UniProtKB/TrEMBL annotation, chains A, B:
Gene assigned in the entry: cobO
Source organism per UniProt: Massilia psychrophila
Pfam families per UniProt: Co_AT_N, CobA_CobO_BtuR
Cross-referenced PANTHER family: CORRINOID ADENOSYLTRANSFERASE
Cellular-component GO terms for this entry: cytoplasm
Entry annotated with the keyword Cytoplasm: yes
UniProt keyword rRNA-binding present: no
E.C. number: 2.5.1.17
Reactions it catalyzes: 2 cob(II)yrinate a,c diamide + reduced [electron-transfer flavoprotein] + 2 ATP = 2 adenosylcob(III)yrinate a,c-diamide + 2 triphosphate + oxidized [electron-transfer flavoprotein] + 3 H(+); 2 cob(II)alamin + reduced [electron-transfer flavoprotein] + 2 ATP = 2 adenosylcob(III)alamin + 2 triphosphate + oxidized [electron-transfer flavoprotein] + 3 H(+)
Protein name as catalogued: Corrinoid adenosyltransferase
GO MF, any single term: corrinoid adenosyltransferase activity
Pathway: Cofactor biosynthesis; adenosylcobalamin biosynthesis; adenosylcobalamin from cob(II)yrinate a,c-diamide: step 2/7
Compartment(s) of residence: Cytoplasm
Annotated family: Belongs to the Cob(I)alamin adenosyltransferase family.
Length: 203, 203
């Protein structure tokens, strides 16, 4: 048996074992239910992953609701794009940018609470298959919103509705009730090498 | 001074310091250039973040090329959705699903190389502002593609073109030449709780 045949056969045997293992796990996981997904950590990709899930849901014919907390001083590429589909995506952006730009806690709290009312409206509508609550974790971290009321509302939503929540510093209470939680960790970042925030990659 | 005024004033002072710090960092980062972004790790959100960047780029009027390595047995929501915009997004899916389903190393290698030819074509076209090479890391990990040739091609692309590369197990050589690298780490996963892979969240 020559060397490359050997590699190919060992590859096949390994892949057969892997397939058997994965098939067994898939058979055991049979529940269909709306899930809560949290993307947190200091790395990139928390919001963009949420927007990737938005188009995944749209591809399956779902209706989607988006609420952006905190962000909003500058309109983003994803907002411009998704506003092309008003029958499929309801997009709500909380005004006035990051909290270190506004420096006004009372006004930020008010805006966050208005944004949460929009989220509540989406959570009362079972026709909405997926809701993205972008940067909600920041609003919770600064206590613009109370984590216990937020969780109570989340748990009362329609059973098949998925929710994606993003932002660094997800509170422990939220992680405890979430189904899937990912921590995005920085390995390296272009910004540190002097590259500015560019259209199409950062906003 | 009452308690809430005090909290609000301390918040404002903290945010002023934060804004000064961030503004200084932003002023120092002034380069505009195409960047290489790598999403790796065992957690969720690597591909979906890539697709979020696709719509971000589309919102800025960029053209986008997508090549999906490895995946492809089952069409995904993001593919269905993005195929609605053939003038804006070129979508190429390498056939036949995951390597543990095909169990044939030679055929997988051939398919991966065909998919790489598609990527090379995108990298010769400066009109394409962003390229998503989804699950490329898997094709590198199994050595369906040679990491050094892949890197040579990446470094010769048009200077303003952005590339997003996803998949667990990104090789060290690729991390070394990338601009922004994020590791998606599992904190918890719905699958472990017996919830199946569902339309709109997992595919």
């Amino acid at each position: 048996m020559d060397h490359s045949t050997d590699i190919n056969q060992r590859h096949q045997a390994r892949m057969e074992r892997k397939k058997a293992f994965i098939d067994k796990k898939i058979a055991a996981a049979d529940k269909e239910i709306g899930i809560i997904i949290v993307n947190t950590g200091n790395g990139k990709g928390k919001s963009s992953s949420g927007f990737g899930m938005v188009i995944r849901a749209l591809g399956h014919g779902m209706k989607v609701g988006v609420v952006q907390f905190i962000k909003g001083a500058m309109s983003t590429g994803e907002e411009t794009f998704l506003r092309r589909f008003p029958d499929e995506v309801s997009f709500h952006v909380m005004g006035e940018g990051y909290t270190w730009d506004t420096q006004d806690r009372e006004r930020d709290t008010e805006k966050a609470q208005l944004a949460w009312q929009q989220a509540q409206e989406f959570m009362r509508d079972p026709a909405i298959g997926l809701i993205l609550l972008d940067e909600l974790n920041i609003a919770l971290k600064y206590r613009y919103l109370d984590v216990h009321s937020v969780i109570a509302d989340l748990l009362e939503r329609p059973p098949m509705q998925h929710v994606v929540i993003t932002g660094r510093g997800a509170p422990a209470e939220l992680i405890a009730i979430a189904d899937t939680v990912t921590e995005m960790a920085v390995v390296k970042h272009a910004f540190a090498a002097g590259i500015t925030a560019q259209a199409g990659t950062e906003w």
